[in-house]
């Protein structure tokens, strides 16, 4: 089918969280309605949270509608061949005013068996971090189920986990099974498989407004955890006006573009591409139309778009399959 698909933007799906804050508005220009807004789902096909286009002739249609109308032009043949009509990724911005729970995600096999879902391999790009901000990622030393359960019962789990200081520009790649938590005072861009399956194992003993603790998933987590140490932090080079490889895994490929002036972006794959602007502003030119984006904006380039011109001064995550 011949189409004239164009760069697509979507209405953000905003999520209140017990640990959320207001930086999604003050830092990323989202129109939040609460001072505990923790997440902006930028592009999603999670059931009941399917993103809706907010401009152009497809305005008002959701991603699943568009895939049904233009499967190959939107997703790309390589994505269709692998995932069918399922959109395989979920894109978020996260504002952690308080520590998130300590948690992990199951792999594809467990997630399919238990939840009929994809697993949840993910990556974080740190957009902003307060002084002394830190993350929890994996164990300090190789552990085992028995040691883990003893520390969990004694409320000393944090003592065997790896806490890492973070700063703007840091990248972490989290394979399934990795225990992790985003610490207070951090804004993150998150790229992950399309999944909302989380096993929460410790929540800092906090309670909600009604005095209730959030549900923990102790039993489900036991055979999903990677008890060995993991090297989650990603080192990468950052050269201006070119795509710098950051993550290349089975589920997504992420590059960083430090845009200074003008570049021509040419597609090198038969798949959709997503651009997340994490700093600055830029103009994208396609088919004699100009599209302007700023810090906190996310745009999807359908597979049928082979190239665009970009100009401005910005840091942009470029993600595809």
Secondary structure layout:
Layout (H helix, E strand, L loop, with lengths): L12 E9 L1 H4 L10 E7 L1 E2 L2 E2 L12 H7 L1 H5 L1 H7 L5 E8 L5 E3 L3 H8 L6 E8 L4 E6 L5 H9 L7 E5 L5 E4 L5 E3 L3 E8 L5 E4 L15 H5 L10 E2 L8 E6 L4 E14 L6 E14 L2 E6 L3 E4 L5 E14 L1
Antiparallel strand pairs: 1-2, 2-5, 3-4, 5-12, 6-13, 7-10, 7-12, 8-9, 8-11, 10-14, 15-16, 16-20, 17-18, 17-19, 17-20
Overview of this protein structure:
Helix content is 14%, strand content 40%. The protein has helices spanning 23-26, 63-69, 71-75, 77-83, 108-115, 145-153, 218-222; strands at 13-21, 37-43, 45-46, 49-50, 89-96, 102-104, 122-129, 134-139, 161-165, 171-174, 180-182, 186-193, 199-202, 233-234, 243-248, 253-266, 273-286, 289-294, 298-301, 307-320. The longest helix has 9 residues, at 145-153. The protein contains 7 helices and 20 strands. The strands form 5 sheets. Strands 1-2-5-12-7-10-14 form a 7-stranded antiparallel beta sheet, with no helix packed on it. Strands 15, 16, 17, 18, 19 and 20 form a 6-stranded antiparallel beta sheet that branches. The chain folds into 2 domains: 13-234, Jelly Rolls (Sandwich); 243-320, Jelly Rolls. By secondary structure, it is mostly beta strands.
In short:
It contains seven helices and 20 strands. The chain has 321 residues and is mainly beta.
